[in-house]
Automatic annotation (TrEMBL):
Its EC number is 6.3.3.2. Gene3D superfamilies: NagB/RpiA/CoA transferase-like. This is 5-formyltetrahydrofolate cyclo-ligase. ATP binds at residues 3-7, 132-140. Substrate binds at residues 48, 55.
């Protein structure tokens, strides 16, 4: 299948998941994310799940990070020009509505990307080599390309990695690992 066909197929698969299935998968993925943290993890970048999108709800992981004094950052989406900016946030942060249902931390506290230990990446599907398919806008491609090589890029997915190879474009940055409800798949081995 082409990237667009895979994107549509996994969007359709996600749409038919019940709220209970999403909640159960989210709970498993949150626990696996927590288990992946170590004593040297100090700065984590996360996505804020879009409402009504059936994205994985990672708020339990975010709250755990706060309890462990791990700083959390998230993205702000801009369409003109197309880019992501990043801000730190914590339990005291308020959020304002952004574009397309996103939320924006207020106030914005800029992030030095070089300090990030882990980036949690939303996606629709990923292959056995860590090549992912997101929503097709290229926001995360540009962001991941800016990260130091030692920053771990961990995708979260409702579905296990697919065995079909996803065509890799020159700008695509593969993930280091993906976490699905069945476990963690490490692509760096």
């Amino acid at each position: 299948m082409t990237k667009q066909e895979l994107r549509q197929y996994y969007l359709d698969r996600r749409r038919v998941c019940s709220e209970n299935q999403i909640a159960e998968a989210s709970a498993k993925i949150n626990q696996l994310l927590i288990n992946h943290l170590n004593d040297t993890t100090k700065h984590v970048h996360v996505f804020i799940p879009l409402p009504n999108s059936k994205e994985i709800n990672i708020w339990s992981f975010i709250e755990y990070c706060w309890q462990q004094d791990i700083q959390t950052a998230t993205s702000l989406t801009f369409f003109k020009p197309k880019r992501l900016e990043h801000s730190w946030f914590d339990s005291t942060t308020t959020f304002k509505p952004g574009v397309y249902g996103t939320v924006v931390p207020s106030p914005i506290k800029p992030v030095d990307l070089s300090v990030l230990d882990i980036v949690v990446v939303p996606l629709l599907c990923v292959d056995d080599s860590g090549n992912r398919i997101g929503y097709g806008q290229g926001f995360y491609d540009g962001f991941l390309a800016q990260l130091p090589t030692e920053t771990k890029k961990i995708g979260v997915s409702l579905f296990e990695p697919i065995h079909e190879t996803i065509k890799k474009d020159p700008w695509d940055i593969p993930l280091d690992a993906v976490i699905s409800p069945v476990g963690l798949t490490d692509f760096t081995d």
